[in-house]
Amino acid sequence: MHYFISAGEPSGDLHAAALIEALREKDADATFTFLGGDLMADAAGHEPVIHYRRMAFMGFSEVLRNLRTIFANLKTARGALRRSGADALILVDYPSFNLKLAKTAVEMGMPVYYYIAPKVWAWKEWRVKQLRKSVRRVLSILPFEEEYFAGHGVDALYVGNPSVEELDMRLGEMTSSENFLKLHGLPDKPVLALVPGSRRGEIRNNLPIMDAVARRHPDMQAVIAGAPSMDEDFYREYSDLPIVTGATLDLMRHATAALVTSGTATLECALAGTPQVVCYRANGKKLSYNIMKHLIKAPFVSLPNLIAGREVIPEMLVHLCTVDTVDGKLRDILPGSIGRDAQLEGYAVMRGRLGESHAAAKAAAAIFESLGK
Questions:
Q1: What angle do CA 27, 28, 33 make, to 5 degrees?
Q2: Residues 350 and 307 sit within 8 Å (Cβ to Cβ)
Q3: Looking at residue 236, what DSSP letter applies?
Q4: Which of the two residues, 103 and 125, has the higher pLDDT score?
Q5: Which of 111, 223, 281, 365 has CB 3.0 to 4.6 Å from 205, enough for a Cys bridge?
């Protein structure tokens, strides 16, 4: 069968490449047309119709500046889809673009599958209607999504979370804590990982809070997780603490505790088994917090809490994210505390709900069997 796959950013390229390999194992005659990156190109054996470097625009202002390119990409993608003769369209995350492409597939009578669906349970819930109209089946990577989508009339199957498999492999290849400290020229002291995010706004708002909390713990070595895309000089505007760049998972794994800006890093930190406090300062105003609570439908913002179905990690959000409140929560999870033991127990619950993950293989099997029927 011929599969048309659309992924518009680096993470989607990674997961879609694994899906292509899994589809090849399931379907000996599989061929592909795709939007994506180098990993997908290696798996498919040819170049993408559009590389994600021409697609990955984030934030309102960046999208606005690149509207002409975005519309041109959509026109190219729709044309390629119509000419491809594909048996199915498989969407990987990137909802603003992919849901428009799904509409074209429906008009053609082509079945659509969504692997790594939009987080409609948190925001932009109106997209559920689009999914219900356009998508034959959602292949979910978060266990609670299956029930959520079923409640909105969308067929969904939890196939496992690819991060579990990928991170466990990386964790198994890691060096010892002693070697990690030597490699990065750090003293032999317990490490406090500061993970302020990868965007300028996140770092600007959260790193000063994290730095101030860290200075209350001179018995620990605080280390900043630097994003590869960010210049070290930018971090130096807010902190003079040591920086380890491009090794966030390693840093969290070898840390005694971590302060983590809300995002996928919270799940990585939990899978690494390091107790954490979630920080999200944003503009720091109570009004912003109340607006956010109104817009976000989910009871939590961090993935470990959402997956476990209860508060495992303290979430210090917006005006609640102060030096005193974050420090208090950090002290609750340091060695010897009841809070630390409780958080580690919560991690075990989260891992149990994620299950043994072979997400790409399960997703490929579900798609192939559905098309066969």
A1: 70
A2: yes
A3: H
A4: 103
A5: 281
Per residue in 143-173, is it b (16+ CB within 10 Å) or e — as a string?
Answer: bbbbebbeeeebebbbbbbbbbbbbeeeeee
Encoded amino acid at 251, one letter? L
Question: Residue 213's Cα: distance from chain center in Å?
Answer: 26
- Cβ pair 138, 157 in contact under 8 A: yes
User: What is the pLDDT at residue 284?
Assistant: 47
Q: Give strand pairing partners of 226.
A: 245
Q: Which SS3 state, helix, strand or coil, does residue 176 take?
A: coil
Whether 59 and 83 have beta carbons less than 8 Å apart is answered as no
Strand positions, DSSP E, the chain: 2-7, 31-36, 50-51, 88-92, 112-115, 137-140, 156-158, 191-195, 221-226, 243-245, 257-261, 276-280, 315-317
pLDDT in tens, 11-28: 889 899 999 999 999 999
Residues 218 and 211: their CA atoms lie apart, in Å, by: 12
Helix (H, G, I), strand (E, B) or coil at 171: helix
Phi first, then psi, for residue 176 (nearest 5°) are: -75, 165
**87 vs 368: CA distance, rounded Å:** 10
Q: What is the DSSP string of 277-327?
A: EEEE-TT--HHHHHHHHHH--SS-SSHHHHHHTS--S-EEEGGG--HHHHH
Beta-bridge mates of residue 315 = 278
Instruction: Report the alpha-carbon distance of residue 125 to residue 33 in Å, rounded.
Output: 30
Percent of the chain with pLDDT over 90: 73
Cα 264 to Cα 44: distance, rounded to the nearest angstrom: 27
CA distance 243 to 22: 38
Chain-centroid distance, C-alpha 127: 19
- Euclidean distance between CA atoms 328 and 324, whole angstroms: 6
232-247 pLDDT, tens digit per residue, is 999 999 999 999 998 9
The answer to whether 214 touches 192, Cβ cutoff 8 Å, is yes
* 251, HSE (Cβ side, Cα atoms, 13 Å): 27
